[in-house]
Amino acid sequence: MPSFSRVAALLPALFSSIAYAVQPVEIRGQDFINTATDKRVMIIGVDYQPGGQGAYNPTNSEDPLTDGDKCLRDATLMQKLGVNTIRVYNLDPTLDHSKCASIFNAAGIYMILDVNSPLPGESINRAEPWTSYNSDYLTRAFGIIENFKGFPNTMAFFSANEVMNDLSTAEFNPQYIRAVQRDMKNYIKNHADRTIPVGYSAADVREILHDTWAYMQCIHDEDESSSDFFGLNSYSWCNGDNYQTSTYDGLATMFADSAVPVFFSEYGCNRVMPRDFDEVQALYGDQMRALSGGLVYEYSHEEANYGLVEIDQDGSVALMKDYDNLQSQFNKLDLSALEATNPQSTELKAPECDGSLITAEQFSKNFTIPAVCPGCQDLIDNGIENPTNGALVDIGDTNVKQKVTGSNGQQINDLSLNVVSNDGSNTPGGENTSPSGTDSGNNDNPSQTGDAAQPSETEGAASHMSFNFGLAMMGVFVYMLTL
Ligand SMILES: *[C@@H]1O[C@H](CO)[C@@H](O)[C@H](O)[C@H]1NC(C)=O
Known about the structure:
The protein is an alpha/beta fold and 483 residues long.
């Protein structure tokens, strides 16, 4: 039972029917941990950037998390897919993302957010990183922190993405990535009411991969610049590969003793399509349990041909075969095994930074992090001017308005978001969302798939409602007592 004070604290939320689905995560050793349940949070994720890079359009005041109707559609489809985390790349720190963030929260889906964008001055310039490390750039990065720090489902921030892609870019960039991380972590410490992890998303370039991880996680003079976690964009498993041919075995060995969580921030090779996603069983299997899962690239089909769904101009969505295949892989996961914490996890400690950690001659061995840029300490201490701060809001109607069709072209009717109950994040539900065969009625019935082992979504929704109703009645009672 919730304590009296907890109930009282929830009162305003109850009366405006804001859902508190997701509990913040924190990092313990190699694991992300749900702070309310103490269980491990394994990332079952999808990268989300519908519209591609062009979706972030400051002129039109748009980015992927500004349109509530679209977010509701996509959160519903990702919820059914079994996803518990999205990564969003390019966001506008001045826009209001409250509706979309609240929808994903209600869906039980965490958000990992990049603070950068491809526009000039909005990311580290890998050719001359010192030219891009300045107060304008940091104001943008801090703006993303301000914008998202208030949401319980903000899981983490990426300080940078694939800045290094070969040995020559590994000479000066590592120090600047750590400088940005130091500044972001200090900003969060000063201006957020909880810790939010900050880390780097690396390209899978094997000649620099080990050194990048070693450089990012090591501890230097308590200067806060280390990565709290390490993301890897890995496409090395294509259809037909196995644990060895994909070189996943090498990755498992490399990261077995990582002192920080490691996960795939992108995966899903598309050399053969549709993708069968057999790598899901390896990534979440015993041999790779040191890793914290991953995010499939990517939700929507864009120019690069990595989609799980096609989004039409009119907003209608067609599930692709890749969606079905990924869903059936997620449905096979052993969820209770994934929630167990790594026994060795908290014993692992990152080493002190030292040149001996670095194997490649050209890779930076300079661990002296650049001094805070001119004018930047003031931002870190006092905060940026006029930040846009998001907060949970009522998500309103949970029915999907757009037309959605399965991979065989049949329409899926009556789609709606299932509001996940307190402390919960979303889990694979055992259903096949695409209608199977040629049956045109009864589209969304899980019993057709022969997989009856999972609890139905309606049950979850019903128990959530009665829980909320109970709390509301207690709330009314407490309210009356205070009169
Ligand atoms: C190491 O980097 C710092 C700046 O971060 C710089 O001042 C110093 O000269 C560098 N040391 C060497 C040996 O290059």
